[in-house]
Amino acid sequence: MAMIKRLGIALTLILLIFPVWAQQKSKQEKSDIDALKQEEGQDYYKKWLNEDVKYVISPDEKSVFQKLTSPDEKEQFIEQFWYRRDPDPMTPTNEFKEEHYRRIAYANERFASGIPGWMTDRGRIYIIHGQPAEIESHPSGGSYNRPMHEGGGTTSTFPFEIWRYRHIDNIGSDIELEFVDPSMSGEYRLALNPEEKDALLHVPGAGLTLAEEMGMASKEDRPYFNPGNRENYPMMALRAKDNPFERYETYTMVQRPQEIKYKDLKEVVSINIDYKPLPFEVRQDYIRLNDQQVIVPISLEVQNKDLSFKEENGVQNAKLAVYGIITSITNRVIMEFDDDILASYQPENLPQGLIARSIYQKIVTLDKKMRYKLDLVVKDINSGHTGVKRIAIVPPMYDDKKLSVSSLILSDYIHQLPQVPKIDEMFVLGDVKIRPSLKKVFTQDRPFGVYLQLYNVGLDQASLAPALAVSYKIIKDGQTVVEVKEESGESVQYFSGQRVVLIKTLPIKELQPGRYSVAVEVKDQISNQTIAAQDNFQVTVPPQVAAK
Predict the structure, then answer these.
(1) CATH number, residue 472
(2) Within this chain, do residues 509 and 520 fall inside the same structural domain, yes or no?
(3) Are residues 474 and 540 in the same domain?
(4) How buried is 376 (Cβ within 10 angstroms: 0-12 exposed, 13-18 middle, 19+ buried)?
(5) For 385-437, how does the pLDDT look when each residue is reduced to its tens digit (9 = 90+)?
(6) Residue 197, class by beta-carbon neighbours within 10 Å (0-12 exposed, 13-18 middle, 19+ buried)?
(7) Residues 364, 447 within the same domain
(8) Chain mean position to CA 182
(9) How much is the pLDDT for 14?
(10) How many angstroms separate the CA atoms of 207 and 144, rounded?
């Protein structure tokens, strides 16, 4: 009986203790899982910072990330990090991010040599700058005939590769990088000097250059041992990019992450600072491209008298930084751009330059069915003065059948180009370079040009040409003071089934200073449709430069 009682007590104790022990074990397991998750999270963020984005994150971004404490903050930072680099936020994928991880995978596959490929010099350059335009590969080294810019002659080399990039932003064009494997282990290292690949460099009497073979120089004279002797070394062709300082600068720059040039301007837009100590004008025009898209030349103008000029190498320079961001009405980023405006004058020409203006233009293509807003920031680099503007971009709804027109552009400079440029240029529409006048103020001694595009113009079935009657009028106080009529469309500069381009220069030399309007009336004699465009402008006398 006593034995049964003792067993009952023991069983009761077990039943009482087990839930506590089980609960403690459950709590311990949960704590271990949470600790593991936290450790894994720390490892993930550490890996992201020190491996995934090591070559593309800027020092400032890295410093900010290291100060973050919570996972939520870090996740938000990572999301913004990729978003800032997304070349087209309208697409469902981030092309930069996808390309970045593709490059890492490629580097690990192709450049591994005892260490992961992304950690090698070739992997680093490939991840930052992508595939070079050309690779000259010597995987086994061996006999090598030097080009003349290396001194000529024959030597034996370690395995090496030469990567050539046509252009790298902020570094230059025709970039040439050499990778050498002196350990013969497959680990190629970025070389600072082309002679690093020479396996006989330190072997007396072997691997001589042409000058050394002819007794005109010795190995000790080579630029590798005596960098200041490059220009004096016999029979060595000189290239600017082989200059030791140029090579060192390239060596350093290619290993840096690529960034947006003017992040401070982007921050001005992001925090919506509202001040305008630097005045500037902005204008947007609309040119129909096709049924879905419209070309929008965005022009801005700053008066040089509002800029700070500083002397640099005997020249007076003013430099402007421009940043723009186009967003949809739902704040979706459509496009970003940043650029420079440089105004330079000889000291004796500065008074004339101060009455001139600096103009910049960005031509963008947008969906004509959407509405946008444009934030522009212009900063005077010398003074730090900054101007900010926000404008609406509302493409017109062109009728698919009725005669319609583009924006009427007034200009004091319209120039016919010999051909359409192969790359986009400021102020160029097709084969015409036209610099718009944003304030629409014209001096009597300057040309007064008119540019207009017509759409849905009828074409003669026999000649396949338009038949237009065009009237250009300059109006003052409701009275026509200048009128030029064309019955055969003499001002037609170009025509096709999609558009007709009109360009006309009107006389204003005899006009008195004051405010005027210009009206262009067009009658399509084939479709019997008429349309007009009108704008205001001002005529002034030529400015006088103050005598010294």
Answers:
(1) 2.60.40.770
(2) yes
(3) yes
(4) buried
(5) 888 888 999 999 888 889 999 999 999 999 999 998 888 889 999 999 999 99
(6) buried
(7) no
(8) 38
(9) 38
(10) 9
How many domains does the chain contain in total?
A: 3
- In angstroms, the Cα distances linking 363 to 90, 225, 299, 408, 418 are 19, 51, 8, 16, 20
Distance CA 282, CA 264 (A): 21
Using alpha carbons, select from 298, 491, 299, 286 the residue that is nearest to residue 404: 286
HSE-up of 210 (CA within 13 Å, CB side)? Answer: 14
Q: How buried is 458 (Cβ within 10 angstroms: 0-12 exposed, 13-18 middle, 19+ buried)?
A: middle
Calpha distance 391→327 (Å, rounded): 11
Under-50 pLDDT residues of the chain: 1-23, 25-26, 29-30, 32-37, 39, 261-262, 271-276
pTM: 0.53
Rg over alpha carbons for the chain, rounded to the nearest Å, is 34
Strand partners, 300: 282, 360
Report pLDDT for 111: 95
Q: Which domain holds residue 155?
A: 132-253
| Sheet of 468-476, strands arranged across | 441-443, 529-540, 514-524, 468-476, 479-486
Q: Domain check: are 445 and 344 in the same one?
A: no
Tell me whether residue 542 is in a domain. Answer: yes
- 317 and 249 in one domain? no
Helices 2-47 + 71-85 axis angle, to 10: 30
Q: Identify the CATH number of the domain in which residue 294 sits.
A: 2.60.40.10
DSSP string, 80-98: HHHHHH-S-TTSSS-HHHH
Which H helix or E strand runs over 65? Answer: helix 59-67
> Is 86 within a domain?
no
CA 66 from centre of chain: 28
332: tokens are 């979706």
Domain end position, chosen among 205, 225, 253? 253
Tracing tokens 């003074």 back to the chain, one arrives at 383
User: Is residue 414 exposed (0-12), middle (13-18) or buried (19+ Cβ within 10 Å)?
Assistant: buried
Query: On the CB side of 36, how many CA atoms lie within 13 Å of its CA?
Result: 6
Q: What residues contact residue 455 under an 8 Å CB cut-off, 6+ apart?
A: 288, 398, 403, 404, 405, 406, 498, 499, 500
32 in a domain, yes or no?
Answer: no
Task: Judge contact between 188 and 160, C-beta under 8 A.
Answer: yes
Is residue 101 assigned to a domain? no
C-alpha pair distances (Å), 245 with each of 32, 51, 229, 250:
56, 31, 13, 9
Residue 413 and residue 313 share a domain: no
> Same domain for 226 and 271?
no
Residues 461 and 505 in one domain: yes
| The pLDDT value given to residue 260 | 54
For residue 287, give the nearest of 451, 402, 424, 470 by alpha carbon. Answer: 451
Domain end (from 396, 425, 450) = 396
**Nearest to 501, CA basis, from 490, 512, 493:** 493
Across-strand partners of 100?
Answer: none
CB-neighbour burial class of residue 125 (10 A; exposed 0-12, middle 13-18, buried 19+)? buried
- Asked if residue 139 lies in contact with residue 186, where contact means CB atoms within 8 angstroms, the answer is no
Q: How long, in residues, is the chain?
A: 548
